[in-house]
Records
---
Amino acid sequence: MISKYSEELRNTAKAMVAEGKGILAMDESNGTCNKRFEKLGIAATVENRRTYRELILTAPDLGKYISGAILYDETIRQSTANGVSFVKVMQDSGMIPGIKVDTGAKDLVLRNNEKVTEGLDGLRDRIAEYYKMGARFAKWRAVITIGEGIPSDGCIEANAHGLARYAALCQHGGLVPIVEPEVLIDGNHTIERCYEVTEKTLHEVFRQLAVQNVAYDQMILKPSMVISGADCAVQANVEQVATETIRCLLNTVPPAVPGIAFLSGGQTKEKSSAHLNYMNANFRSQFPWRVTFSYARAIQQPALDYWRGNTANVAEAQKLLVQRAKLNSAASGGTYSEEMEKQPALV
């Protein structure tokens, strides 16, 4: 059965990975946002979260480099201080509103140190509500941990099945699903071990998507890069990360998928840009899909660090945000360089 939204979904998916643009992930939960605020001495209040999100979404020219933003449930219901809904702010800036719909990773029962993402209950109705509110894509994140004896086949299969069920419900309800299987950077594993787990995970994800009749040309993949564990004694260089990541994706991702938008997954903002840039600068002729970014902290953190809850800092913080988006836009075209990091943040 084909979704009545198929043409709209295809067009939205293409727009999400338009040339020179990426997707901003600003869907951190209230708890996560509060922790980031507390580290910087910002009061963890609803109003401060709203103000910070307004800072992001009203940043001048952000829409030049960002095709859409993933919002949290609280955010999609909020408005600017002047009463303009954030959804309208985004639409007026040429950005597509998106929404996080999973309810988080929980312990996978009868397993050690493994997680499964929940949120399928009631999802059909939530998708219908979000579509009416103006959302046109959604996100569901699954997490795969590499460790002693893990990930298990059961963990990979459970998470892939959840992603596939979510994606099918999204396409049925008019939202482009961002399918996000994140192989965590935590641990001391080598890049070779990361490749092995990532390839196995992606194979299972696309097998499950096929079983659930998900249309590949109406979705976006948001994977992690193939990279050394954060505690690994030998850290792979930029060339190795880019080469192994693209090799893995070419072996697993169907050509019909319109785009791959990487998560940064705990990398530094500079490494996130450098890895993406190397892929596009050296392997672009091999891509059947667009390869771009869907970063959170790797774009937001400089702005948050500068703002610190101070109204007087908003304009400069917005410049830092847009500058980071601009640098990743360049990386998505293979034109980023370390020298660009030294340029002043001018909007």
---
Amino acid sequence: MKRRSFLASAVGAAVARAAEPRLRCRTGGDFKILAVSDLHYRPEPDTHGIRLTERLIELEKPDLVIVDGDCVSGNDCPSPEAVRAAVGNVAAAMEKHKVHWAIVFGNHDQEHFPKTRLDKHAVLEIYASHAHNLNGAYERGLTGAGNKHLLVWNSSGTRPVYCIWLLDSNEYFTEGKNTYYDWIHTDQILWYYRSSIELEKRYGGKVPGLMFFHIPLREFNEMANQAKIIGARHEPEAPSPVNSGLFAAVLERGDVRGIYCGHDHTNNYVGRWKGVELGYVGSAGHRAYPRVAPDDPSNGKVRGGRVFLISEGPPARHKTWMRFKDGSVNWEFEYQSYSDYQLGK
């Protein structure tokens, strides 16, 4: 088989895989996603983090939960059994409530590897062993692991209305004596670009999307310094020093409407940069920074998760807000006209 035909077949197969199982809008045309990040779970349960995720699920009743990286604290998992226990803690809230869920890797997830020798593919098998997890059938042969997309279908199941892109933003790279955060590599970007084109051909138009990965792009910093944002920016962004070119690819394709990350625990803002939403999903774990007691009142507005409400349309669209540990929401997103004005929509 010629290389071009092979690539086309591989992308087509990935598109077909992304359709199963069908995530479908509810009767009435809505689909809700809850995204949390930076759980940093260990073999011993973080009861406060698990309970917070449960409460967010109970309040928002999502159709899909995404854990946006640093799901486990790799350094605290010295054996394969410890990794399985930590992954079990990640799964606990979603499996209890029988809601579909998926993860992306963060920079800390695989720090157990020198001790456990469990690579990302082996760890994803552990995740996928849980009944409601959707991390199986990801695209093989790319940098990182778990790169895939999930289609959200309309309530009648006849057409996809949104595409959920999950990418591995990788871990670290070393240059001389210095270590830096890694980036999303060219093969991953090409996979997104070609898959996006294939989806457009297959379904007769661009499928709008939301993209999730852990380490923010350099464009987050550009936006935060030059445009309006809504929400908290309590620390400087910590991207890779390398601009991967993913944002340019997203602009060229014109289908991804929002890119959302974790990594910077005390940021939960959202803004719009060159027409694309860039934002954070908020942290839910209680054993990483900010290191305050779990019952400290400051956790009420620092820890939480981001909600996305997709409406099938036509045209399909979404809105987003933060739901915090104290039960409150970002009031701005109760008034869509205000957020549109603030972000220049």
---
Amino acid sequence: MNQEQTVPEGQNQEADELRNLSEQQRVRREKLAKLQSEGRDPFAVLTWNQTHHSKQIKDAFAEHENKDVSVAGRIMSFRDIGKAGFIDLQDRDGRIQVYLNAEGLGAEIYADIKTWDVGDIVGVEGYVFKTKRGEISVHANRMVLLTKSLEPLPEKFHGLRDPEIRYRRRYLDLIMNTQVMDTFKKRTQIIKCIRDYLDEREYIEVDTPILSTIASGAAARPFVTKSNALNLQLYLRIATELYLKRCIVGGMERVYDMGKNFRNEGIDIRHNPEFTMIELYQAYADYNDMMELLENLVAYTALKVCGSTTVTYQGTELNLAPPWRRLTMMDAVKEYGNIDFSAVKDDAEAQVLAKKHGLDHELKKKLKDCTKGDILNAAFEKFAEEHLIQPTFILDYPADISPLTKQKPGDPTMTERFEAFIFAREIANAYSELNDPIVQLDRFTQQARERELGDDEAYMLDEDFVASLEVGMPPTGGMGIGIDRLIMFLTDAYSIRDVILFPTMKPQS
């Protein structure tokens, strides 16, 4: 090339990109270019008449033997034995073997098929038979390359194991790991079971806003965004509670909303900033009704999806059948921490106790600002929570940390609230809902003071919600269930990222 010659704009970049490709990637692109130059562009194929899937054929072989079928899927392996060969074809339900030979397809077509790659998506027409080794297969009469795979699949013997790659490139995870596909199919079944259970009990599913001017209904740090049209700061919802209670005020009596919530918090094996939750509310009920509903709902779902109310999670057998153990928070702290909070008279005495047991390091605010209820909760989290392996209801939470909950009759310091734990993890939170607008406004005001002290997870004042209570809300039981965590237990998933198709990930540099 002489100095006066110029390189067309973009050509250097394209050349560099090609040079960065692996040998397999270059070969696949060359095969694609050849097909396109011959007028056989696989990306131009629009449709394929897929009459059957692998599982359908295998489950009813007697019905399909010697019958014509049309299947489609991804080539996962190709074993060439000269003038014949075997392909493992993977579709949504699993794999089925395809037998092909030069005699049936024609020598030229068979030779062309041998140039296809593992990962290519193909359509196959043929009849169902069983090989001499007893393998149910499709004898191919016609094969069409529907999509060319330009990226080699992970090496088949070791598969895809790196969690970072699996979560970032979930499509490869689904292709290579059959148990991952099974997990997400089960996820769909579990969600359907929950809906069916509630629908049969005359609950109404409703939609509540994801964008709101107030982030409330839970103690959590929200994500903040802005409406350009309204020139208004908005929050992604952290809970659906206050909207669903408005529905109860309006007379719906039994409502639920299953969908995404967003909390701007840490990420670990139990937490993802975007997660699925169901909240449900029932008029003329209390937290006892919610306990009964939860344990029966979980048992029903486990039986439907897993075939038993006993499941194994990370090597531990869990018995999900009702009734679940019931234990007050005070009794749990006394049992596992050997601390009797019923003998603690006031905040000052509780603060001394906190110092003695090292609880001051567990608290979210300065010890001098903490109430007896704050310290009781910290003691529970430190001493008791890790022991709650089998399903357990922890009852009667302090009013200080339960601003939307009715007080226990005869004890204004405690509320009718429970959290349900499995394998030391909270899966549900429920109340006998506070319906006194005067007390609710006072609780919101106290939460506002907590925010002033630096607690950015404290509840915001929602004046319209208070106004709705002034219209009148009947006695109501309400509950929120962490769907992702429940799915973890029913699919034996170690991390919440294993049950969320596309978990939140930091971009790669």
